[in-house]
Amino acid sequence: TDATARLDPHHDIADIDRRLFGGFVEHLGRHIYDGIFEPGHPAADDEGFRTDVVELVKELGVSTIRYPGGNFVSGYRWEDGVGPKDERPRRLDLAWHSTETNEVGLHEFQAWLDRVGSDLMLAVNLGTRGTQEALDLLEYANVDTPTTWTDQRAANGRETPFGVKMWCLGNEMDGPWQVGHRGADDYGKLAMRTAKAMRMVDPGVELVVCGSSGRGMPTFGSWERQVLEHTFDDVDFISCHSYYQEHDGNAQEFLASGVDMARFIESVVAIADTVAATKKSDKRIMISFDEWNVWYLHDDQGGQNDKPEEKGWPVAPRLLEDQYNALDAVVFGDLLITLLQHADRVRSASLAQLVNVIAPIMTEPGGPAWRQTTFFPFSITSRLAHGRAVRVPVSSGSFVSAKLGDVATLNAVATVDDEGVSLFVVNRSTTDAATLRVDLAPLVRELDREVSVAEAHLLHDDDLYAANTLADQTRVGVRGADATVDGDLLTVELPAVSWAAIRLA
Ligand code: AHR
């Protein structure tokens, strides 16, 4: 089928906040232990971090990294993870039915972040703990005056503060599975008190209050409204979390996931702005989409879901080790397009997660590390999307999603920076290839010169379910896209179920 679009560099959405390309590392399964940290591995450095994993994380291009959870944080005592290693306690982790050895804590994680070149985003425990413990951690991490906590930090090897900017006020407190789960009113008041007190310690922090764990939560909407009624003046962001998967082999429905994400974002923006209106405030609460990915969470496909409680209390068990296929990667690319399309209000996002646990990077203990299919759309988008996000309306066909109604077959966004323009586009059709013709006239006029294709990447596999595995680590990758510029016209060929990134310079 034929599709047309127009790329006008003045159709701005917003400047892109680099924090849109964040990640998330939780003490969960083999993420830390036997993932990023494996002393004894041939590629481990003197502190036990796998250098092959560090290189892959750098290639992925992750800005901020949210830590240490997730569900894990709601039972975590941060003090367990600092101080002499041989004195650190072993604890039960109720969230993932595991044993936490605390070999890695705040200092070690910061040391790893220094290697990968990413910034720390911390979550405080508002499940089993409260305001005081959040203040203790903030003082330990960010304060520059000698106190008992900051003296301990120095004694533990860190004279200068960590200077952590972004802080999450708990995790998924709306979820009945969460240790210390609370109702919206209860949580809203606790988050408000904690936020006010944290700002007394460090007025420079940016605070994220928990939104819903998903648009499908029974409390979705009323949760956001009630929580923001309490916290509106004291926080900067509200979180969104969302995971997508193919159900019952219905690839077409799965390919509509980007539209679901867009509706989620737009609903939360509407609620946040309604609260602003009732408060007669011009303040705009931004979204931290701090958990997003494909995750085979529901067991209707015969089983990538895990039941940790059936495994006892192991250290670093294999949990949530989803294997991603070509179809997953195309949907994933569309989720990135959707985040960029909402760059005016989504000012931070975290791919959940990074290594081994629903991750773009996999490792084997003592063995190799490799890229899953989802690695490619992330690394390419993070590398090419700079400057401003720009709307690219596409005229294409549509299909009917049982859940979402009419869904456009093609979806695109562009970014414009000083050196050039990047176009990201997905073909969501399971049956039809598309020829996309993009009118570049407004761009060529603005630049006052012709443009040409500098890079063109295509993610597509005739076998939608092809994946990269330990046995075949490079089965799926990206190849050159068929993209040409002729004068004012860019033509891109998009096979059914494909994602492409084109760089014009
Ligand atoms: O990312 C895996 C889990 O998903 C996180 O721990 C939790 O916050 C969410 O439910």
TrEMBL record:
Homohexamer; trimer of dimers. The keyword Hydrolase applies. The keyword Metal-binding does not apply. Belongs to the glycosyl hydrolase 51 family. GO terms for biological process: L-arabinose metabolic process; polysaccharide catabolic process. InterPro entries: Alpha-L-AF_C, ASD1_cat, GH, Glyco_hydro_b. SUPFAM superfamilies: (Trans)glycosidases, Glycosyl hydrolase domain. Transmembrane segments: none annotated. One of its GO terms (molecular function) is alpha-L-arabinofuranosidase activity. It catalyses: Hydrolysis of terminal non-reducing alpha-L-arabinofuranoside residues in alpha-L-arabinosides. This is non-reducing end alpha-L-arabinofuranosidase. Keywords: Carbohydrate metabolism, Glycosidase, Hydrolase. Pfam families: Alpha-L-AF_C, ASD1_dom. SMART domains: Alpha-L-AF_C. It comes from Microbacterium kyungheense. Gene3D superfamilies: Glycosidases, Golgi alpha-mannosidase II. Its EC number is 3.2.1.55. Residues 290-498 form the Alpha-L-arabinofuranosidase C-terminal domain. It comes from the Bacteria.
